[in-house]
Every structure is written in C-alpha cells, then in structure tokens.
Task: inverse folding
C-alpha cells in the first residue's frame, strides 16, 4: 500500500495532538509500508532530526505571510475563541495548500489512501476531498464542554464565539465536505460520534485517539523500593489544566512534593500561587523536558496528577499507566475513558473546593498505602499494554487501509510479502 499522512503539525515538542502524525508515519515506515507525510514547514527542523533518512518522503507547506499574520492575531485571544475563528481559518489555508500537494503525490507516487489524523475536533471541516483516492479521517475526539461548575471560568466572549461557531458547523462541513465525503471516519468515543456533522457518506469506526509506545514508556518494576512522595504533573501549563488545584491540594498534604514538567502561560501564576501558599520549597518547576527524558522523571515519582477540566484525550495518562504509575485525575473527558478504579483515582469536578479536597485526599491515600499504589500501577500497566499499545493500534489501522484498497492490489502485496519471506528463509 502507498499511504499519505496529512496533518497541520507533526511534532513531539508541541504537545497534544501534534504527536499523532509522528506515530503513524514512524510505524508505517517501520512496517515497510510506502508512506509519505505532508505537514506545515514550521516543524521541518524537528522532522529532519527525527527522520533524517526519510526526508524525501516528507512534503512541507510553506509558511505564508497570511499564516504569520493570523498566528499573531490569534495569540492574545482565549484558546477556544482563537480555535473557532482565526485559528480555524489558518488551518484551512494550510489544508488547501496540502490538497494541492497531495493531488500531485497521488499522480506522481501512486498514493492509494490519504489519512488525516488531525485536527481531532469532530466539528472542524476537512478540505481533503476530491483527491481521487479514499480518505480516512481521525480518530477524532471532542464534543466536550467544561464541567458545569467551571463554565464560568471561561471568558464569556469565548463561550459566545464557540456557540456561534456551532450554529454554522453544518454549513461549514457542507461547503468544505472532506468529512462528509471521507470513506472512513474514526472516532474515539460515543460523545465524539454524537458531535459529528450529519450526512457522512463513509463508515464511522471506533478507535481510541491516543496510544503508548511500550518501548519508550517502560517500567523498570522498581516500585517496591520506591518510597517517593513526589507527584508529577506532565503537560502544557495552560489554564484549563488547572494546575492551581493540585498546588492547593499540596498545601493540605505537608509530606507531599510536586514536580511540574512543562511550560506555558500559567507558569508564572502557578509559581506565584506556590509562594502565596508557602509551598514553594515543595513545588519544583522543571520547565520543558525532552520527551525521551520524561519516562525517568515518571519512574521516580509516586503518581501522576492531572486536574484538567477540558481534556479530550490525555495521552500522558496512558504513558503513566505504561510506566506502572497510578494516576489521580479529573473524572471528565479522556482520563475518565482510560482509567478505572483498579489503576487510578478519579475526582469529580463538582467545584474547585471539592476538587482540591479530592486531590488532597487521594495524594494522602497513596502516600499512606504504598501497596495500593503498587497494585494500581501494575493494573494500569497491564491495561495500557493490552488496550492502548501503538503497535496493536497500527495493526487495526492497516486492516482499515486494506479494506479500502482494490482486492487485486492487496493480493499482489500479500504475494510479494510471502515471496520476500521465503527468500529470507532460504538465504538463512
């Protein structure tokens, strides 16, 4: 098969969904699949480092002046407001540029399937249509709102803009019909399925958005000797992650420590809050840390904490599970999809005070019960490897690809694979 992965970004540094195209491209190439990647040029430097031998297979959308102007205009806006307005326009410009590139690849390289894994929003229109080959979109993950108790924390102008955007979502997906014309749309959960635009032509198939690289996120099984009382937050420091909640909880647990790995606009306010509460000596701001160094940080911790109130996915939860670490998280969105009582403690987002109290009690519980922490960690690792391993996930995706390729092509491919295996065997 000849597959083209198309994405706005492909990066291990940007956080969030930007890492998903990296996994698809990497694993397809590891399997010997003829694959190409089409992304914006802003991640070129990192991709050269990650895939030095694959650069002939990566195509870049140039950084146009309109991209830079829209990006600057977006920066001061609240996140959801920028995503629903200028950010949406910026990504659509990129997608139309990609559409031209992909059409050329279909003609020049014989691309058989185009896969657009991001953006993961079910409402965001896709400009990848009319390419002459099947299109797969997703897994999508969204259809979320803030918990009722926290909706006041989002600026009113942001809430209004999102509400207006939802009124036009069907019109946008009719005018830009990539999702409606896609052969397959993958969705992470039922709430995302319900948020899809009406009138989709293709199959809608369930597949979790995130996964874990079992080779990178690997426990050393040293938990029995781990007497750490340090909790770790790993992610972007943005308002909806509500890192302030776990800092306030820390103030109620004198024996606990907190390491915050990541950077973002909430770094300053969180540091100020730690000083205000007198816990600055127990809160460690590590800043941005390369992904390959994060497993060791997690390994030395007691547990991961994620007090986010708007987390559609939450790959870091799966990574902590794979490391054999329990997770304390909000019972909302992605973490609630991944965790159960055997491997984590979920805190209801009923109010800020309730969440602070819940996180404090959960932290004390794990500190006081190392056997419970170990049992949760072991259960989480088993669950992560069984249900969320990227290699298992890519097997499922390959079956979807094969179902879209003409049967005679699949037969020829299978014959070639068999012949190659026989040749290797005879040589051995």
Result:
């Amino acid at each position: 098969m000849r597959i083209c992965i198309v994405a706005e970004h492909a990066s291990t540094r940007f956080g969030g969904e930007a890492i998903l195209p990296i996994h698809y491209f990497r694993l397809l190439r590891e399997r010997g699949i003829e694959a190409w990647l089409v992304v914006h040029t802003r991640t070129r430097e990192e991709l050269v480092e990650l895939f030095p031998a694959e650069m002939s297979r990566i195509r870049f959308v140039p950084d146009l002046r309109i991209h830079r102007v829209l990006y600057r205009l977006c920066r001061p806006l609240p996140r959801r407001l920028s995503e629903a307005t200028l950010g949406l326009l910026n990504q659509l410009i990129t997608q139309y540029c990609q559409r031209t590139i992909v059409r050329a690849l279909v003609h020049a390289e014989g691309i058989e399937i185009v896969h657009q894994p991001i953006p993961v929003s079910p409402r965001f229109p896709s400009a990848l249509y009319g390419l002459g080959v099947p299109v797969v979109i997703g897994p999508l993950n969204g259809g979320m709102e803030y918990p009722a108790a926290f909706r006041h924390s989002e600026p009113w102008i942001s809430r209004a803009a999102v509400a207006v955007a939802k009124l036009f979502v069907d019109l946008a997906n009719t005018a830009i019909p990539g999702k409606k014309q896609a052969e397959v749309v993958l969705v992470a959960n039922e709430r995302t399925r319900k948020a899809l635009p009406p009138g989709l032509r293709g199959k809608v198939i369930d597949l979790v958005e995130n996964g874990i690289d079992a080779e990178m996120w690997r426990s050393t099984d040293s938990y029995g000797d781990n007497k750490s009382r340090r909790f770790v937050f790993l992610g972007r420091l943005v308002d909806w992650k509500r890192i302030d909640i776990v800092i306030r909880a820390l103030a109620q647990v004198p024996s606990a420590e907190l390491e915050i790995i990541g950077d973002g606009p909430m770094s300053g306010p969180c540091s100020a809050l730690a000083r205000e509460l007198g816990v600055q000596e127990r809160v460690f701001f590590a800043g941005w840390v390369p992904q390959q160094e994060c497993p060791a940080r997690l390994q030395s911790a007691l547990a991961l904490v994620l007090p986010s109130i708007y987390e559609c996915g939450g790959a870091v939860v799966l990574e902590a599970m794979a490391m054999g670490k329990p997770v304390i998280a909000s019972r909302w969105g992605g973490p609630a999809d991944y965790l159960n009582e055997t491997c984590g403690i979920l805190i209801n987002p009923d109010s800020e005070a309730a969440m602070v109290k819940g996180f404090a009690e959960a932290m004390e519980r794990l500190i006081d019960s190392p056997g419970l922490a170990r049992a949760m960690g072991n259960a989480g690792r088993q669950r992560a490897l069984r249900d969320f391993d990227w290699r298992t996930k890519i097997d499922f995706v390959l079956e979807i690809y094969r179902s879209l390729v003409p049967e005679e092509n699949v037969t020829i491919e299978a014959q070639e694979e068999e012949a190659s295996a026989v040749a290797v065997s005879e040589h051995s």
